[in-house]
Amino acid sequence: MSTASPIPALGPGIAELTGPVIIGYLLHWGLFGALTIQLYLYYEAFPLDRLAIKLLVYTVYIIEFAQTMLMTYDAFGTFGYGFGDTTTVTNVHFDWLCIPIMGGIIGFLVQSFYAHRIYVFSESKVIPGFIETISLASVVAGFVLGALSYRSSQLTQLHHQSNYTAAAVWNGGTALCDIIIAGCLTYHLSKHDTEYRRTHLLILKLIRLTIVTGSLTALVAITNLVLFLVPRRIYFTAAGAVQTKLYANAMYAVLISRFRIVGGRGYSPSIDFVSTGEFRDNPRIGSGVVHSASSPVITIRREVFADRELDELVRSKCINVKSGVVEDLPQSCFNPYETQSRV
Predict the structure, then answer these.
(1) What is the dihedral of CA 146, 52, 131, 310, to 10 degrees?
(2) Quick one: 216 exposed, middle or buried, by C-beta within 10 A (0-12, 13-18, 19+)?
(3) pLDDT reading at 14 higher than 60
(4) Element (H, E) at 246
(5) CA 124 from centre of chain
(6) What are the φ and ψ backbone dihedral angles of 340, each rounded to 5 degrees?
(7) Measured on CA atoms in the order 214, 216, 217, 220, is the torsion positive or negative?
(8) Which among 297, 175, 298, 285 has a CA at the least distance from the CA of 225?
(9) Residue 271 · residue 309 · CB < 8 Å
(10) SS3 at position 54
(11) Three-class secondary structure of residue 252 per DSSP
(12) pLDDT tens for each residue of 145-180
C-alpha cells in the first residue's frame, strides 16, 4: 500500500520570504475594498460631475480591479497549489505587470489629476508642467523596470544595477511629485481661505486631506525604494502591493470629500446643503440630499474641486426648500464663496 510522501520541512528563514508577500496581499485586498466603497459613494453622490472626471474615476477602478485579480491569481499560486514550495514564493508571476507597470500608470493618472487642479488654482503652466514631466519620467521608468523584471524568473534576482536605476527613477520621481503636489495645493488652498465659516472649514479639511494623502503616498514610494535596495530579500513586495491602491484611494478621497453626512461631525442643522450641487428633492438637479430644517436658510458652497456646472448654479440660482424647485434670484444675494437665500 502506497503512502503519501511527507511534506518537506521549511527552513527557519521562511518568514522572511512569505511574510512580506502575505502582508502585501492582505493590505492590497483591504485597500481594494475601501476603493470599492468610495467608488459607490462617488457614483451615488456626484452624477453631475464632468465626463472627464467620470472617465478618470472609472478608468482607475478598472485598472485597479484587473491588478487585484492578477495578484489574487498569484496569491493562490503561491499559497494554494504551490504551498510548501519556497520557489513559488519568489517567482515573479505577474508582479512585473501589477506593481511597476500598472502602478506607474495609476500614479501618472492621479498626479495628472492633481496637476490640473494646481493649474486651475494658479493659472500657470510652469509647476503643473514640471509635475507632468517628472510623472511621465516615472511611468516610463516603471515600464522599464517591469520589462527587466519580466526577464527574471525570481524576485531575488532583481538586485542589479539596471533595476536599481529604474526603481530609483520610478519611486523617487513619484515621491517628488507627491511632495510638490502637497505643498502647492496647501499653498493655494490657504490663499483661497475666507472669513466664511463653512468655506473655512472646507478648506481646512482639504488641506489636511492633501497633506495626509501626499505624505503617505510619498512615504510608501520611498519605503518601496529603500526595501528594493536590500540585497537577496523581497521585503519590497509588501510596499509595492499597496502603493497603487493608496494612490487611487487618495484621489477618490479628494473627490468624495465634497460629500456631507447629515447629522455627522461638523454638521450644522442650519445648513441644508449636503452634497455639492445635488438635491434629491428635485430630480432635475441631481442626487444629493435636501431635508427639512428648523431654519429656512440654505448655504451653497463653491468648492475648490467643484465643476463649472456647479459654479453656474451657485452664481445664478437659489433653491426653495418648501417647493423644492430652483428659482432665479438677483445676483446681489450671492457672494463668491457662500450663498444664502431666505425663503
Answers:
(1) -150
(2) middle
(3) yes
(4) helix 236-255
(5) 24
(6) -125, 135
(7) positive
(8) 175
(9) no
(10) helix
(11) helix
(12) 999 988 887 887 787 778 899 999 999 999 999 999
Q: How far apart are CA 338 and CA 12, in angstroms?
A: 64
For residue 87, count other CB atoms closer than 10 A to its CB.
10
Cell numbers 444629493 correspond to what residue? 288
CB 134 within 8 A of CB 115: no
pLDDT digits (tens, 9 = 90+) for 27-51: 999 999 999 999 999 999 999 999 9
| CB contact at 8 A, 179 and 218 | yes
- Residue 163 C-alpha cell reads as 533595476
Q: How far apart are CA 20 and CA 226, in angstroms?
A: 14
Cα→Cα distances 80→75, 83, 88, 293, 298, Å: 7, 5, 10, 56, 57
| Angstrom distance (rounded) from CA 173 to CA 133 | 10
C-alpha grid cell, residue 158: 532583481
Kindly give, in sequence order, each residue whose CB lies less than 8 Å from that of residue 151, ignoring residues fewer than 6 positions away.
none
Q: Which residues pair with 312 in a beta bridge?
A: none
Instruction: Tell me the pLDDT tens digit for each residue of 287-318.
Output: 444 343 333 333 434 444 444 444 444 444 44
The answer to whether 154 and 92 are in contact (CB under 8 A) is yes
Please give the single-letter amino acid code of residue 21. Answer: V
CA distances from 25 to 28, 221, 228 (A): 5, 17, 17
| Contact in structure between 186 and 298 (CB atoms under 8 Å) | no
CA distance 67 to 32: 10
Q: What does the block give as the cell for 109?
A: 493618472
Cα–Cα distance, 93 to 153 (Å, whole number): 8
Dihedral over Cα of 57, 47, 27, 219: its sign: positive
277's grid cell: 450641487
Q: pTM for this one?
A: 0.74
Distance between CA atoms of residues 253 and 213, nearest Å: 9
